[in-house]
């Protein structure tokens, strides 16, 4: 891009920038080791269960942690919810989200600022349909149930994610005479929804889709029997869910590859699944650094003679977190491992549970420096929901430049600017503060959350890699205590 073109583009967006910044400043986010002791979240004589790994039963934003599960305490399965507003240290009472004589199963939860979104499958319509409800105040109050699907065959096992006001849902659906992956979205925080979009079209089963989003790029994985055995497949949309690329086969071996989970940070996409190519179930991983265009080779994360299954993955910057069910100890336990370099290398396996009962179906979430995990466990004689967290496991990659106490808050212009594809942000804080540094596009949609944690007084710098983003003007905003400042920058390809 020539200098005169850059100058013209900057001039044309000045008014739009002012309007966007004004809108962003009206909605500041809420303020904000080692693995801690297990916390029992439910306590009733009936079964309380988390979902399969294509969905997440835990979501976090700042110090707010949200958990969902299915529960039989009412004589049939209903969806329940619980939240913590202090990073998992304490928890509010259980909240029953559904109330119908039919069974409600397999919830999935996601959060964006104070908007909490939950989807599940329910049999109230004489067949399984996908339902949705939301809270706009961080889980305090909840809206009415909303039916997302309406066809005479079964719609099951939804997965949900969100970026700004846009909510994305995928599920498996039998309306075509075999299981296919379907998708729909809301562009107004769940108030209204677009049509169902069929993602797969093949005469074999496509099941358990999992969804993740970064900016306008929506990523979906599932497992598929079109090759005569189950393989992991991937598909993406580069325009926020309107149009979709062709299917990409991610695995290629004679064994069964199933139950994938996906997470994304900027242009880097991470996928895990379990695979029996080594004659026992093990956890495998692969990634794409260019937004899903090309993929690395499969990497084996576990290797023992017993089963390692149902992995769940989340990522924040270069730090990737994986949890799974593992039978290596003679009974099912929850294990964890992480990579701090974007999946290039991995730390040792960490056993999170240690009791003679079975622990199943873990989900993982990260917010700032804290990693949160939820699962169900029958150590109490019936299945109950348990939780654990590591307050320091989510390394952010922020570089500390100077811990000398500055005299005032500040945010410098990003450098270089224009940039391609990397740029840096420097900021100073004179007192300990929850720092939120976010990148938006010119429509006000959140593109990247670069910092979301408490920082000590000092000067810091953080880098943003905009690979996979389109050329143009972006807005960045910092909130630290009462200090709020925004700037604009140009990605010039």
Detail the poorly predicted runs. Answer: 1-13, 26-33
Strand content: over 45%
| Number of DSSP-assigned strands | 37
Report the mean per-residue pLDDT as an integer.
Answer: 89
Helix content: under 10%
How would you sum up the major sheet?
A: 5 strands, antiparallel
Any idea of the CATH class of the largest domain? Mainly Beta
What's the number of domains? 2
Kindly report how far apart the N and C termini lie. 7 Å
Radius of gyration of CA atoms, rounded to a whole number: 22 Å
| CATH fold annotation of the largest domain | Neuraminidase
- Report the CATH architecture of the largest domain: 6 Propeller
Number of helices: 2
User: What class, by secondary structure content?
Assistant: mainly beta
Shape: globular
